[in-house]
Amino acid sequence: MATAFKIAAKDNVATMLESSRPQEIQLRGEALQEEFLNLIESIELGHKIALQAIAPGEKIIKYGVAIGLASQPIQRGEWVHLHNCQSQLDERSSTLDLHTGLPGDTRYE
Amino acid sequence: MSDVWPGYLRSDGRKGIRNLILVIYTVECAGFVAHQIGAGDDDVHVIGFPGCYDNQYAVRMMLALGKHPNVGAVLSVGLGCEYTQPKRIADVVRESGRPAEWFYIQEHGGTTASIEHGRSLTASLRERLRTQTQIVEMTWSDLIVGAECGGSDGTSGLAGNPVVGAFFDLLVDRGGTAVFEEIVEMIGLKPILKQRAATPEASAALERTYDKAERYCREVRQYSISPGNFAGGLTTIEEKSMGAFAKSGTKPIQGVVQVSEPLSAKGLWLLDSVPDAFFMQFGYTNPNDTEGIMDLIAAGAQIVLFVTGRGSVIGSPISPLVKVTGNARTFARMREDMDFDASRVLTNEVSLKQAAEELAKLITAIAAGMPSKPEALKHREYFLMYKYQDTPSLEAGCHA
Q1: In this complex, is the C-beta atom of B80 within 8 Å of any C-beta atom belonging to chain A?
Q2: Domain ranges in chain A?
């Protein structure tokens, strides 16, 4: 069974320890309130999964602190990344390619 | 577990875990000769500064490294026409109670004659160290440990850095000193940094240092995060910052030191390696991992922990580098280079606290003389650069 790691008790996201298709996965860490969770889409190793529904403008919490704000409604079990989580400092990161992280705003001409 | 090991007492009261001869060259032109002088001798390490025009920051760093607790003696080698003065370096090292020698290559003939002269000087320095160094008991309160990360992946913020942070907590509890840097990887964490301050003075220093780093990132138009970080699952600079900051542990931060400044008290410290505002702003935030490691060694760290998820094959002169990885595959694939497998906290095999205790045990063995993996492989990478910190105003010196 694929696993994801939750760091702090307050976190509303966990980090995938393996890539997984949509299925039930197991949570790990020293601050767990629950043990299992359903992925509703495929998520890659190292990426984040929402542990609860998060409304636009709400904080995305990892390490017990806000690492960004939700820019879209997020469901429990959904992938959390550039498309639905916005940095509070770095505007450019939300414009990067969702899968490669590459910028589209640099001109090569 | 033994909490006492033998150390080398220096006249300033600090204790080293190695008793090395450091060859310092004062311009790139003397670099080859300097390395040949040290070649084949495990107790001779080499550092140097490439520029012919001198730089106050680099000179401070060479002096701090020459007086490092792991260094017992210094040989300073110049070509003979550069700005930086090897004699002045040897003088300062001698004032610290260590034997020191110096010479100019141009005054000793060519390559071969200079190497032979240098080797005869290191041989006599070795003899003086052998007969004169005082060996004493050393314990946690005599130890300064630095932490750096590089070649990071998703495991660094989950396992590698948190294990180092848990070890830092333990080190501070045992009366030791811990120092971390990479303030540019703490962008977004200003309130969290300030909450960790031990005193109002420390809080003000952390705020100043943070603001300088953020201004620097804006001026060079760069946060310390790359496409590979995003592809690997990091979504924001704040998230990357928290992963890097995890290596500081949870103890109060006593204050901020600049590069080459000695630590004035025990406990946890932040090292500020960001250049001060100056007309020459280079377009990077952290030039490479080795630069940060050298900054930590210049702060007096006798051992530096290096967290790498993807794997790295660097080492360091003067102070053993100890490599920690949170990635089980990296540990297996690069076993020869990796000192500690922190990935077991991700599988719930060990708790953070247990992993930190294991790391502490490894640190005492290395402090007692066991070579770290990069040390055994004879990795001695170093990097001294032009930088401006605490530098006189532009009006002093050049006029158009």
Answers
A1: no
A2: 3-95
Among chain A residues, CA nearest to B187:
A89
Residues B75 and B179 in one domain: no
> Which of B196, B239, B346, B348 to mutate to test binding with chain A, by most A CBs within 10 Å of its CB?
B239
Q: What is the pLDDT along chain B (400 residues), one digit of tens a residue?
A: 469 999 999 998 999 999 999 999 999 999 999 999 999 999 999 999 999 999 999 999 999 999 999 999 999 999 999 999 999 999 999 999 999 999 999 999 999 999 999 999 999 999 999 999 999 999 999 999 999 998 888 888 999 999 999 999 999 999 999 999 988 888 889 999 999 999 999 999 999 999 998 888 877 766 777 787 888 888 988 999 999 999 999 999 999 999 999 998 999 999 999 888 765 665 556 778 999 999 999 999 999 999 998 899 999 999 999 999 999 999 999 999 999 999 999 988 999 999 999 999 999 999 999 999 999 999 999 999 888 887 655 555 555 5
Residues B96 and B45 in one domain: yes
Distance from CA of A51 to the nearest CA of B (A): 16
User: CB pairs below 8 Å between A and B: how many?
Assistant: 92
Domain tally, chain B: 2
Phi/psi at A20 (nearest 5 deg)?
-150, 145
State pTM to two decimals: 0.92
On whether any CB of chain B is under 8 Å from the CB of A25, the answer is no
- Chain B: give the shortest CA distance to residue A73, in Å: 16
CATH architecture of A3-95: Roll (2.30)
**Chain A residues lying within 8 Å of B237, measured CB to CB:** 87, 89-90, 93
Q: What Å distances lie between residue B310 and A41, B155, B222, B292, CA to CA?
A: 27, 9, 22, 18
Contact A96, A103 (CB under 8 A): yes
- Print the domain residue range for B35: 20-132
| Same-domain check for residues B176 and B87 | no
Kindly provide the ipTM of the predicted complex, given to two decimals. Answer: 0.91
B67-77 burial, b at 16+ Cβ within 10 Å, e below that, comes to bbbbbbbbbbb
CA atoms within 13 A on the CB side of B35: 10
Is residue B153 located within the same domain as residue B180? yes
Any A CB within 8 A of B185 CB: no
Tokens of B299: 């702060």
Q: Are residues B196 and B264 in the same domain?
A: yes
Residue B297 lies in a domain: yes
A55 touching chain B per CB within 8 A: no
Q: Evaluate whether residue B398 is within a structural domain.
A: no
Please check whether residues B166 and B219 belong to one and the same domain. yes
- Does B164 lie in the same domain as B118? no
Helix, coil or strand: residue B45: strand
Of B225, B230, B236, the CB nearest to A68: B236
B223 touches chain A (CB under 8 A): yes
